[in-house]
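Re: that chain you flagged

S.,

Sorry for the slow reply, it's been a week of failed gels. I finally had a moment to sit down with the sequence you sent. For the record, here it is as I used it:
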Amino acid sequence: MKWDEITYTLLKPYERKYKKPLENVRVVSDTHGSPDYWKALEDAQKARSLIIHLGDVIDRGPQSVEILQENIKNPYVLQLLGNHESMFLNFVDAVLEYAYEHEIEIENDAERFWDTADNAYLDETKQWVMNGGGVTISGLMKLSYKELMEIYHYLMQCPLSVELTVNNKEYYLVHGRPGNNWEKLWGEVKAGDIFFRGKKATVFGHVPTIVYDPSKKEPEIYREEHIIGIDTAAGFPDFHGRVSMLQLDDLKEYYY
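Prediction finished late last night. Pasting the structure tokens below so you have them in one place:
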């Protein structure tokens, strides 16, 4: 198995801890706080997988903050930034800027941070809440200022895309679509899109796969030769959404 430099650095802490080499790569996306992610994570650990999460860990679901904190400390999860994490970062940036402009001291004071956010009534807050951020905000309000900033700084360093080769097959992993930073977060892949010459496949989230095949009773991983969609609408359980993982080594699919 051939790894690129980024994923290889993720292998070392895991291998040192468990004294066993990682054996495969599994990708997942748009879990949106779903409790079903825990079972997917457990199965991947048993299989000694490197997990690459394509973003949108948070919002809509009840386990948003807990799962994000798990990904932060987990030595074999590589997380990309999704548009929902981007909204969180924009929110924190706006609160910090507002506090600075109005000479409000909020450092190391979580209560004052949230009071400032509430009083400022920022556009960034409204956009985030409209997109399911309310449940994440409720969870974040239980954290200390230090814990909140740990999440902020972790997400600030998350990549927007990753390229790797697994078993001689090239993959480009991204939340939205290849392109500029906005497109990587918010862009939507359309059926039939081809982004790279040759056989490199783009693996993406963001758009629920039911969009590509409405005939499915439950969302499934969507595959064409050059694109693979893995957002199976875990944030919408009322519409039969579920968490899915795709193992890149053999393209085996797992559903939860």
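What I noticed first: DSSP finds eight helices and ten strands in the chain.

Talk soon,
D.
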